[in-house]
Write a structure and sequence with these properties.
The protein is of the alpha/beta class. The protein folds into two domains: 13-289, no CATH class; 298-391, no CATH class. Helices cover 44% and strands 18% of the residues. It is built from 14 helices and 16 strands. Strands 1, 2, 3, 4, 5, 7, 8, 13 and 14 form a nine-stranded mixed sheet that branches. It has a three-stranded antiparallel sheet with strand order 9-10-11. β15 and β16 (273-275) form a beta hairpin. α4 (77-83) packs antiparallel against α5 (89-97) and α11 runs parallel beside α13 (355-391). The radius of gyration is 34 Å and the shape is elongated.
Length: 417
């Protein structure tokens, strides 16, 4: 049933994808062109520091790194000196005296609106509805201290199609907001991030004046728009000073790897495969535009009410009308349920499960139709058996007279001309 419900939601997304009316997010992608120009991944963090400096020059609202740096940079001068014992001692000494690449990247982050990613490991049940993880994968302490915040990048999706993302999660008992929400917090200089329950059964994440609804389990439905190359700018273009600064100015800028073979692409309900970093951009856009998808607690009651009303109509129509009329009413009810679900999706951003009421209507119609036809068949058989039993007592001539009605209304003279 869950797969059927997800398929119905996917169909609604495909029939009415979100229109990209604004562009609050820009993705600086480390793409194939960047890798061809600056070498294979991972890059030395000194190059990422240079990339951040270029981005900061355009004055973005905030920068989110959809990257993890769990170990010190092996390309740092001191690390190279350690890895190459054959180099002369004086050269080794000069290398060890140079600033490390991690220090350069931390310097490019310090005092600026930069958010680092953190991933939750080993999903657990900690007794709360939020996604919970027993451990984390994060960047080294030197970089973490320099960042303005940390945001969760774990999707918590159990299927190959990503439909929802957590607005927050618990890692080792600590509440961590999603990367997109933490970028909004840093950009608006809000002091904190808060979660609160709503009367309709939803959870609401608050960052300053921004309100983001999610389901009770902390997962927010993504309302997808089509993949748009205009969301992206190549890191090579930024490093070389060829990128339009307006693509970065006052934007929420995401940095991520999209080079073929280096990143797992995810599938969206629109049937597209996109880099994982685009999920964060999609969430930023729908937060900025206020185009959310929610399934309140009352949605299930509304669906049950629609099903009950439809079954009542079928109970009145099917036994009393011809089969063609019953089929037409059945088709009209299915169309009405589908139209109601699509209308709620388009106009209000409310997810109604059309699949379950439609399945219930189909089963009810089948049972009612079968019962009606069976009752007619039984009545015909019973009356026929009674008539033939009575005829057994008549003479052949009387049987013939009983079978052929010679009454005036059935004579040739009574046929209208």
């Amino acid at each position: 049933m869950g797969a059927l419900r997800d398929s119905a939601v996917d169909l609604q997304q495909r029939l009415s994808p979100r229109e990209r009316t604004s562009a609050p997010a820009t993705i600086v992608e480390i793409d194939e062109r960047s890798l061809a120009a600056y070498g294979q991944w991972p890059w030395p963090r000194s190059r990422l520091a240079a990339l951040l400096e270029r981005i900061h020059a355009a004055q973005p609202a905030a920068v989110g790194l959809d990257l993890l740096f769990p170990e010190p940079d092996r390309y740092s001068p001191a690390a190279l000196a350690e890895a190459l014992p054959q180099i002369p001692p004086d050269v080794s000494g000069r290398l060890r005296a140079l600033p490390g690449n991690d220090a350069l990247l931390a310097g490019a982050m310090r005092g600026r609106p930069v958010v680092l990613a953190v991933a939750g490991l080993e999903r657990i049940d900690d007794g709360t509805p939020l996604p919970a993880f027993s451990s984390r994968l994060a960047s080294i302490a030197e970089l973490t201290r320099a960042a303005a915040g940390q945001g969760l990048i774990s999707s918590a999706s159990a299927t190959r199609v990503v439909r929802r993302m957590p607005v927050a999660g618990r890692i080792e008992g600590t509440l961590v907001p999603a990367l997109a929400l933490e970028m909004f917090r840093v950009a608006t200089r809000a002091p904190a991030f808060a979660l609160a329950s709503r009367p309709d059964g939803l959870l609401e994440a608050a960052v300053g004046d921004i309100r983001v609804p999610a389901q009770a389990d902390g997962l927010a439905w993504l309302r997808f728009s089509r993949h748009d190359p205009l969301r992206y700018v190549s890191a090579a273009a930024v490093l070389e000073g060829r990128a339009d600064p307006e693509l970065l100015r006052s934007k929420l800028v995401l940095i991520g790897v999209t080079g073929l073979g280096l990143v797992d692409h995810v599938e969206t309900p629109l049937g597209e495969r996109v880099p994982g970093v685009e999920l964060h951009a999609q969430l930023i856009e729908q937060i900025f535009d206020g185009t959310f998808l929610v399934r309140p607690r009352w949605a299930a009651w509304l669906e049950a009410g629609m099903l009950a009303a439809a079954v009542l109509v079928l109970m009145l129509v099917v036994p009393a009308r011809r089969v063609t009329v019953s089929v037409a009413v059945f088709a009209a009810l299915l169309a009405l349920i589908a139209a109601a679900a699509l209308g709620a999706f388009r106009l209000k951003g409310v997810l109604l499960d059309a699949a379950m009421p439609m399945l219930g209507i189909a089963l009810s119609f089948g049972l009612l139709l079968a019962a009606t036809l069976a009752s007619f068949g039984f009545a015909f058989t019973r009356d026929g058996m009674t008539a033939f039993a009575a005829m057994d007592k008549l003479t052949p001539k009387d049987q013939f007279v009983s079978l052929v009605d010679f009454s005036p209304q059935n004579s040739l003279d009574a046929i209208p001309r």
